[in-house]
Amino acid sequence: MGALLLTGCILPNGMVLTALQDAEMRKHQYIDAIRFYLRATDLPIVFAENSGTDISSAFDADEKKRIEFITFLATTMIGT
Fold first, then answer.
1. pTM: predicted TM-score of the whole model, two decimal places
2. If phi over 0 gives left and psi between -120 and 50 gives alpha, with beta otherwise, what is residue 47?
3. Helix (H) or strand (E) holding 34
């Protein structure tokens, strides 16, 4: 059986090519998207968020049974 991988960046911190900069709005959009896939599929969901923002508290225990949250802070290496 497969899994659905969803990636996210809630805090874009001024990335110039990112149209939506509002972190609260981005957070709610990711939560809504995850809930959509919880309803639309039976697949386990992996949500990998790369700005260090943990949204797992937005989900109840039953929802969390199908979601794995991976949260980390990505860094950029310039000039390497």
1. 0.88
2. beta
3. helix 23-40
Please report, to the nearest 10 degrees, the dihedral formed by the alpha carbons of residues 74, 49, 11, 25 taken in order. 170
- Which tokens go with 18? 């990112």
DSSP state of 56: G
User: Hunting for tokens 């386990």 — which residue is that?
Assistant: 44
Tokens of 60: 């109840």
**What pLDDT band is residue 6 in, cutting at 50, 70 and 90?**
very high
Could you give the CA distance from residue 67 to residue 3 in angstroms, rounded to a whole number?
10
pLDDT in tens, 39-61: 999 999 999 999 999 999 999 99
